[in-house]
Every structure is written in structure tokens, then in C-alpha cells.
């Protein structure tokens, strides 16, 4: 009987010690040990599109739940799309995030289209209109917080798969070059695989052929509408100088359809999607006249 009392005393003492420990942890534990800054990421604006790259602004929201501010010295970040690295960059300007506050940061960035081309093609073949984006950031602090001078932040998002317009020169009339016609019309093939239409406002274009710079210049006032999920031909009217055409005709006699050309297109994009609205497009399309014949035949077979 006496031994049972001793056992119950021991059990009671253990329970009291456990309750005392829990109370102490609640009262004196670090109140911010479980808090951690977090980020939200989105594509704010596409600023410029060329044949090789896309300049855009990433919109980043940094949430700081800590009772102390963050003095950020630099900000290294990367973006993976469906597991494929498409961007690695650094934001070198220091900034601060106040205690228990949020701060919006706009990061100017550049996507190289070569990095995106294969992944976009694979997704297009699957019929996908969205992708898994993983944003990782290494935040270097000028003043340590919770004993750390760097923070590793990760954010995963499912977002639309934005595709850049694919534009090719598709057709021309070689006889008009030889005859010195003052009006040349090129046809371009524009492929828009986005789920929303895109419009080109007041496109301006210049054509170089061989050694002849600015053989033709043209302007198409108003809006050129490119429907969603479309692959269509559009006509570009050029005005040319007779003397320049005669010089080009001489090169045609010597080089024939091996003669190279360069088409420059400048325009402002409009769209119901705010990411593309107001984006500048500056495309440079290089090729040879014989390449246009091949493309023309392939279009005719479709």
C-alpha cells in the first residue's frame, strides 16, 4: 500500500513538471522563432520583345511578419518553369521591409528565348496553357535577423504559359524587284499560341535586301488583330525607291535566290491580357530569298 502511494507521488510530480515546462515554453519562448518572411511573384509587364529575348518586369511582394525590419543588401533570384531554369539574375539595389509589413518590388529581367523555346514547344504539343513556376530567392541582409544574414525564400505558382508571337516572312514577288515596281508587298506568317488575342498598333517595317539598306519602308496604320490560337498570313505594303530597286536587281542577277534579306518590324502590342498591353515589339527577321520559296510551298501544302 505504501509503495502504491510512492508511485502515485512520482506520477504526480512528473505531471507537474511537464505542465510547468509547457507553461514556461509558452511564456518565455522566442515569439518570432516560428515566423518567416514569404514572397509572392507575378509577371507585371512585358516591356520589349525581340527575336532573341523578352524584357519584362517581375512584380514581387515580400511579406515580413517579424517584429524587426529587414535591411536587404542584395537579392539573387531564379525562375524555373516546369523544372527548367529559364532565368537567373541579381537585384543589386538595397531596400528595406518594415516590421510586420509588406513591400512591393519590381525586378527588371530578361528572358532569353533560346532557354524558353523548347519548353514552350513541348507544352504546346501537349496542349497546355499554364505551367508550374518556381521562384527562388537568396536574400542577403546587411544586418542579421534571428542570427542569420541570408534568407532562402521559395514560392511555387501555377500561372498562364505566355508565348511570344512567332513571325516569319512567308511570301514575296521576285518579279516586282526586277521590274522596279514602286510598291512591294510582303506576306508574313504570324503564329499566336496564346489563349487570348493580340493586336499590333501602327506597325512600322523596313526591308534590307543584299547590300541595299532600307530598300523599302512601310507603315500599316491602325490595329492588326491576331486572334487567339491562330496561324495566319498578313500583308505588309512597302514603298521603295526606283534607284535602290535597280541596284538590288543587279545583285539578284549575280546571287539569285541566295540573296539575303533582313526585315525589321516595330510596333506596340495591345491585348486584353495586361501583361502584353503596351509592350514594345522590335523584331529582326533574317533569311534568304530561297528560304521564302520553301516556306511558301510548305504553307501551300497545309
Automatic annotation (TrEMBL):
Q: Which domain of life is it from?
A: Bacteria
Q: Which InterPro entries match?
A: Lea14-like, LEA_2, WHy-dom
Entry keywords, A to Z: Membrane, Transmembrane, Transmembrane helix
Query: Does the UniProt entry include the keyword Transmembrane helix?
Result: yes
What Pfam families does this protein's entry cite?
Answer: LEA_2
Keyword Transmembrane helix listed: yes
* Ranges that cross the membrane: 6-24
Question: The Water stress and hypersensitive response domain covers which part of the protein?
Answer: 39-158, 167-290
Q: Name one GO biological process term.
A: response to desiccation
Give the family this protein belongs to, as stated in its UniProt record: Belongs to the LEA type 2 family.
Protein name (Swiss-Prot/TrEMBL): LEA14-like dessication related protein
Amino acid at each position: 500500500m505504501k509503495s502504491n502511494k510512492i508511485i502515485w507521488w512520482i506520477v504526480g510530480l512528473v505531471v507537474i513538471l511537464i505542465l510547468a515546462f509547457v507553461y514556461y515554453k509558452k511564456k518565455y519562448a522566442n515569439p518570432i522563432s516560428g515566423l518567416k518572411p514569404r514572397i509572392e511573384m507575378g509577371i507585371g509587364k512585358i516591356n520589349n520583345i525581340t527575336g532573341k529575348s523578352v524584357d519584362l518586369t517581375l512584380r514581387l511582394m515580400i511579406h515580413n511578419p517579424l517584429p524587426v525590419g529587414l535591411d536587404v543588401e542584395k537579392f539573387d533570384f531564379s525562375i524555373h518553369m516546369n523544372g527548367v531554369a529559364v532565368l537567373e539574375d541579381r537585384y543589386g539595389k538595397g531596400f528595406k521591409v518594415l516590421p510586420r509589413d509588406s513591400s512591393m518590388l519590381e525586378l527588371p529581367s530578361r528572358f532569353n528565348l533560346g532557354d524558353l523555346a523548347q519548353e514552350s514547344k513541348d507544352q504546346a504539343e501537349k496542349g497546355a496553357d499554364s505551367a508550374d513556376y518556381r521562384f527562388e530567392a537568396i536574400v542577403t541582409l546587411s544586418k542579421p535577423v534571428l542570427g542569420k544574414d541570408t534568407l532562402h525564400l521559395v514560392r511555387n505558382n501555377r500561372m498562364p504559359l505566355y508565348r511570344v508571337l512567332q513571325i516569319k516572312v512567308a511570301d514575296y514577288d521576285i518579279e516586282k524587284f526586277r521590274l522596279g515596281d514602286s510598291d512591294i508587298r510582303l506576306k508574313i506568317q504570324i503564329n499566336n499560341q496564346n489563349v487570348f488575342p493580340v493586336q499590333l498598333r501602327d506597325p512600322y517595317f523596313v526591308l534590307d535586301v543584299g547590300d541595299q539598306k532600307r530598300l523599302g519602308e512601310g507603315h500599316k496604320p491602325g490595329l492588326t488583330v491576331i486572334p487567339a490560337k491562330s496561324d495566319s498570313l498578313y500583308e505588309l505594303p512597302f514603298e521603295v525607291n526606283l534607284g535602290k530597286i535597280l541596284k538590288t536587281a543587279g545583285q539578284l542577277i549575280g546571287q539569285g535566290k541566295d540573296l539575303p534579306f533582313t526585315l525589321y518590324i516595330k510596333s506596340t502590342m495591345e491585348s486584353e491580357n495586361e501583361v502584353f498591353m503596351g509592350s514594345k515589339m522590335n523584331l529582326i527577321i533574317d533569311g534568304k530569298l530561297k528560304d521564302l520559296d520553301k516556306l511558301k510551298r510548305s504553307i501551300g501544302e497545309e
